[in-house]
Amino acid sequence: MTRTVAVAPGEIRLRTSRSSGPGGQHAQKSETRVEAIFDVEASSALSPAQKKRVLAKAGPVLRAVAQDERSQLRNKELAVERVVEVLREALRVPRHRVATKPSRAAKQRRLEQKKRRGETKKLRRAPGD
């Protein structure tokens, strides 16, 4: 999953149900909708610090539903991928932003450009203004 976390397949529970919407004989009888559920607090793959981060960002239980495909197997893969993506995003540590300021040359260029623009506009005025 990530460089530091590997979730065992058994930690993600899968629940199937009948898919919604039209579909005829096949869709009415087969359980192709899949819901993947990952309990963050019960996970052994996450360290306490990682659990705290995920709980703060995504909550105690991560859920993903897939009913895009007609195949239950493909929907299982999609649901697991979606849970993993949510977990990966919750584990991501934002970069520390370093505040910067414009250089002296950049300030000088900006001021010169403003002066040129002002001169251009001044030349457009009617004489006597």
Secondary-structure blueprint of this entry?
Layout: E1 12-17, H1 24-29, E2 33-39, H2 48-58, E3 61-66, H3 72-91, H4 104-124
Antiparallel strand pairs: 1-2, 2-3
Walkthrough of the structure:
The chain has 129 residues and is of the alpha+beta class. The protein has a domain at 9-91: 2-Layer Sandwich (Double Stranded RNA Binding Domain), CATH 3.30.160.20. The protein is built from 4 helices and 3 strands. It has helices spanning 24-29, 48-58, 72-91, 104-124, and strands spanning 12-17, 33-39, 61-66. α2 (48-58) crosses α3 (72-91).
Name the features.
Double Stranded RNA Binding Domain; 3-stranded antiparallel beta sheet; 15% strand; 129 residues; alpha+beta; 4 helices; 45% helix
Task: Please estimate the helix content.
Answer: 40-55%
* Unreliable stretches covering 5 or more consecutive residues: none
User: Which strand order spans the largest sheet, edge to edge or round the barrel?
Assistant: 1-2-3
The proportion of residues in beta strands is: 5-15%
Q: What is the architecture of one domain at the second tier of CATH?
A: 2-Layer Sandwich
- List the secondary-structure elements in sequence, H or E: EHEHEHH
Number of helical segments? 4
What is the CATH topology of one domain?
Answer: Double Stranded RNA Binding Domain
Strand-pairing-aware structural class: alpha+beta
Mean pLDDT: 89
Ends distance: 69 Å
Shape: elongated
CATH class of one domain: Alpha Beta
Largest sheet: 3 strands, antiparallel
**What is the alpha-carbon Rg in Å?**
28 Å
**How many strands?**
3
